[in-house]
Specification:
With 361 residues, this protein is α/β, with parallel strands linked by helices. The chain has 2 domains: 1-104 and 272-361, Isopropylmalate Dehydrogenase, CATH 3.40.718; 121-258, Isopropylmalate Dehydrogenase, CATH 3.40.718. The chain is built from 12 helices and 14 strands. Strands 2-1-3-12-11-4-5-10-8-9 form a 10-stranded mixed sheet, with helices on both faces. The chain binds nicotinamide-adenine-dinucleotide.
């Protein structure tokens, strides 16, 4: 099969973990006789250096001509945020891509690798019950995309942000969540704040209506504050957690600490045409960039998500996941997940190990 992939490595650790991931995709292409064409394009600070724009037209055109977008990370050091190169870099790049392609659904799996259970910050007896959650987050609506206003009246400063949802937006993300649950444990937990917000009351109503089309999937509703507690207290109760934009942003970041490092968390965003962008959940980690110490697993597993969901290549995706599991079971670790008794390796070495497992699987 021939596939064209827009490769947007970005800033910080992005290019390092992307290099490793492309080698792994090449190993998969060789093994399965696929042809992957990688079209590299600039994004974030790297794009700003050349175009004075974080998301240039040239990059958008390359994405439009591709079958999927493989994104790294963008942004500079927090203390340099006022420099034009880094000011609003993440917002212009990521919200720009979301808007340009109407990526309305975000999927973020949170699982604990059995070999890494010891670095999960929760108690062992909680981890032992198993953690395997898929956050499905609405990505282009709600308060982040409503009107934002700041004003001053009679010497008093005011600010307001409008939260708005229409039923079509809710239906679209609810269908995505129920269909994802059908491929997992057939359970959706829908998050709202329906005791306070009209948007949440509409959300709850529409999600319930959509659920009638999926009789094989059970539906529970949960208030966002309780959900935040339950993710920490009893995460094994969840399968798919369906969230509006802002709640999903916050809750999925709470979930992100469970595996033990941001370097382990892949994610994918999709539009109505099933066009997809995959990316690690973490940022550009400028504190560890260019040192060959970043964990490439989040980027590698993002590529596996691209193969499984965008290209419908489940065996190829599984090969990558198995290879990562095997490398971890042989005790190889980057610094962020290393503990006594493990073998510490760099970004590139870990990638090489995954590549060689793929060829022997
Ligand atoms: P960050 O996610 O980059 O880093 C947070 C911490 O996690 C750091 O200590 C970092 O070293 C560590 N970390 C992250 N990924 C890692 C990996 N693969 N391996 C090992 N350790 C890893 O968040 P931050 O420091 O708040 O932000 C840095 C920059 O990233 C900012 O400019 C921010 O705007 C940007 N950012 C970008 C994205 C994105 O591109 N999707 C997301 C979040 C933040």
């Amino acid at each position: 099969m021939k596939k064209t992939i827009a490769v947007l490595a970005g800033d910080g650790i992005g290019p390092e973990v992307m290099d490793v991931t492309l080698s792994i995709l090449k190993a998969i292409a060789n093994k399965y006789d696929h042809s992957f064409e990688f079209n590299e394009a600039l994004i974030g600070g790297a794009a700003y250096d050349k175009h004075q724009n974080h998301f240039p037209e040239e990059t958008k055109n390359i994405c439009e001509k591709s079958d999927a977008i493989l994104f790294g990370s963008v942004g500079g050091p927090i203390e340099q945020m006022n420099q034009p190169k880094w000011h609003n870099c993440e917002k212009n790049s990521i919200l720009g891509l979301r808007k340009a392609f109407n990526f309305h659904a975000n999927f973020r799996p949170v699982t604990i690798f059995p070999e890494l259970a010891n670095i999960c910050p929760l108690k062992k007896e909680i981890v032992d019950q198993g953690i395997d959650i898929l956050f499905v987050r609405e990505l282009v609506g709600g308060i982040y995309f409503g009107e934002h206003k700041t004003k001053e009246q009679d010497g008093v400063r005011y600010a307001s942000d409008t939260m708005e949802y229409n039923e079509d937006q809710i239906k679209a993300i609810a269908h995505a969540a129920f269909q994802a649950a059908q491929k997992r444990k057939n359970q959706v937990t829908s998050v709202d704040k329906s005791n306070v917000l009209d948007c949440s009351r509409l959300w709850k109503q529409v999600v319930t209506e959509v659920s009638e089309k999926y009789p094989d999937v059970s539906l529970k509703h949960i208030l966002v504050d309780n959900c935040a507690m339950q993710i920490i207290k009893n995460p094994s109760q969840f399968d798919v957690i369906l969230c509006p934009n802002m709640f999903g942003d916050i809750l999925s970041d709470a979930g992100a600490v469970l595996p033990g490092s941001l370097g382990l968390m892949p994610s994918a965003s999709m539009n109505n045409q099933e066009f997809m962008m995959v990316e690690p959940a973490g940022g550009s980690a400028p504190d560890i960039a260019n040192k060959d110490i970043a964990n490439p697993i989040a980027q590698i597993l993002s590529a596996a998500m691209m193969l499984r969901y965008a290209f419908k290549m489940p065996s190829e995706a599984r090969d990558i996941e198995k290879a990562v599991d095997t490398v971890l079971s042989k005790n190889y670790r980057t610094g962020d997940i290393w503990s006594d008794g493990n073998i510490k390796v760099g970004t590139k070495k870990l990638g090489d190990l995954v590549c060689s497992e793929i060829t022997t699987l």
